[in-house]
Design a protein that fits this description.
Oligomer: heterodimer
Distance between the termini of chain A: 42 Å
CATH topology of the domain at 103-214 in chain B: Jelly Rolls
CATH superfamily of the domain at 103-214 in chain B: Jelly Rolls
CATH class of the domain at 103-214 in chain B: Mainly Beta
CATH architecture of the largest domain in chain A: Orthogonal Bundle
Shape of chain A: globular
Largest sheet of chain B: 6 strands, antiparallel
Radius of gyration of chain A: 18 Å
Radius of gyration of chain B: 20 Å
Strand order of the largest sheet of chain B: 1-2-3-11-5-8
Distance between the termini of chain B: 31 Å
Structural class of chain B: alpha+beta
Largest interface: A-B, 76 and 52 residues
Number of helices of chain A: 8
Number of strands of chain A: 0
Helix content of chain B: 25-40%
Largest sheet of chain A: none
Number of domains of chain A: 2
CATH architecture of the domain at 103-214 in chain B: Sandwich
CATH topology of the largest domain in chain A: Rna Polymerase Sigma Factor, Chain: A
Number of helices of chain B: 6
Strand content of chain A: under 5%
Number of strands of chain B: 12
Order of helices and strands of chain B: HHHHHEEEEEEEEEEEEH
């Protein structure tokens, strides 16, 4: 079996939820292939921006998609937000991996009181909320959307924002505030 | 609890993305457990991160990654690991927020007249100190600058610094361009949770005397 066409266009949230539901209902591998084709290459970009090396990226993508397969039954296909759910799974696995790396660097035995279980994975976010966020981001000027992306996903947001926008480091904070406030405003607007 | 100082949107963004160092993440998580507004903002930040994920330009994957993942779909699921018996943490005489309640601590250590600290064990983040500070009413904390980021969450009592009052539930963010001189206000002893990245650079005499004691 091949992953669905890698050039697959972003599908809408409802379609993504149908694919997750098909996995839950009948272990549909075609549905899994479509989700993989869309999310795996984007998870790769996200993880690389977070500073993970190639083999960590591959492991984390596999583990994330495997969790999607296994937890599909618990996903609320009526209301659930697929992108938020998949992102949260990957984020938590990444945090867990970083913790383990840190402990290894310190050469300290793992202690028993660290909770390895990721918290509830985005269950509280509804597809409606995700759609509202998508709409707000669409309305944001491209440069501000870039500032937001770098604030979230960059390892050193300040430096990268300064470079991307060609502005002095000292003015980055106010640009970030501006972009965040604008987004806040768009999110709060009644649709 | 009425919270008036919240984490900045930038800090919440890094927390949502999962890129905050573990000790700092524990301070933010502790704040979220006390502040409904920020807990809601965090959920929204996760939705935002999900949508940003959709918009990342796709990277090329190793050609075999899909096959390898597919091959693992039928693997037996790992049995859930049984919860390990936990040693009850030392009682510090204060109710700690859930995210740090189970951490091993050093217990209170004397740091100066009316001042004590307790170190929390964060083996996964060897570069950051996570400490509880207990400062008596009216005491001035050592003036200090930072060589890294410092997050302070007030658990009890209040202090005041250049940015205003910081009371129970409030979170103060300091980075390397700030110098601050917090003073404990009110009748109550102030207890804070602080993650301190890098070394403190105390300016005052007390600070210079105290910092070797607490090993910061």
């Amino acid at each position: 079996m091949r992953p669905a066409d890698a050039a697959v266009q972003p599908f809408d949230g409802a379609e993504a939820a149908r694919l997750v539901a098909a996995i839950a209902r009948e272990g549909d591998r075609q549905a899994f292939a479509r989700l993989f084709a869309f999310y795996a290459p984007r998870l790769r970009t996200f993880l690389a921006r977070q500073g993970f090396g190639a083999s960590d990226c591959d492991d984390l993508i596999q583990d994330t998609m495997l969790a999607v397969w296994r937890k599909a039954e618990r996903f609320d296909a009526e209301a659930g937000a697929v992108s938020t759910w998949i992102f949260t799974i990957c984020r938590n696995l990444g945090i867990d991996r970083r913790r383990r790396l840190g402990r290894r660097l310190a050469e300290i035995e793992p202690v028993s009181d660290i909770d390895p279980s990721p918290s509830a994975e985005g269950e509280i976010i509804t597809r409606e909320e995700e759609t509202r966020v998508r709409r707000a981001l669409d309305q944001l000027p491209a440069e501000q959307a870039e500032v937001i992306t770098l604030s979230f996903f960059s390892q050193s947001p300040q430096t990268e924002i300064a470079r991307a926008l060609g502005i002095p480091l000292g003015t980055v904070k106010s640009r970030v505030r501006l972009a965040m406030n604008r987004l806040r405003h768009l999110l709060d607007e009644p649709s | 609890m009425t919270v008036s100082r919240h984490p900045s949107p930038e800090l919440l963004a890094r927390y949502a993305a999962g890129s905050l160092p573990p000790a700092a993440a524990l301070v933010v998580e502790s704040h979220l457990s006390l502040c409904d507004t920020c807990a809601a903002a965090h959920r929204e930040a996760l939705a935002l991160a999900g949508v940003l994920l959709e918009r990342q330009s796709p990277s090329e994957l190793d050609a075999s990654l899909f096959e390898r993942t597919l091959a693992r779909l039928d693997e037996k699921r790992p049995a859930p690991t049984p919860a390990q018996a936990r040693r009850p943490p030392r009682d510090l005489g204060i109710r700690l927020p859930a995210p740090i309640a189970e951490r091993a601590t050093s217990g209170w250590r004397w740091m100066g007249p009316g001042m004590a600290f307790a170190r929390l064990d964060v083996p996964e983040d060897p570069k950051t100190n996570l400490v509880l500070l207990k400062i008596g009413a009216g005491k001035r904390m050592p003036t200090h600058g930072h060589s890294g980021e410092e997050l302070t969450l007030v658990l009890q009592g209040a202090f005041e610094d250049e940015h205003g009052r910081c009371a129970a539930g409030d979170l103060a963010e300091e980075d390397d361009d700030t110098h601050h001189t917090p003073v404990v206000t009110g009748e109550e002893t102030c207890i804070c949770l602080a993650s301190i990245e890098g070394r403190l650079r105390p300016h005052g005499l007390i600070g210079r005397l105290v910092s070797p004691l607490i090993g910061l």
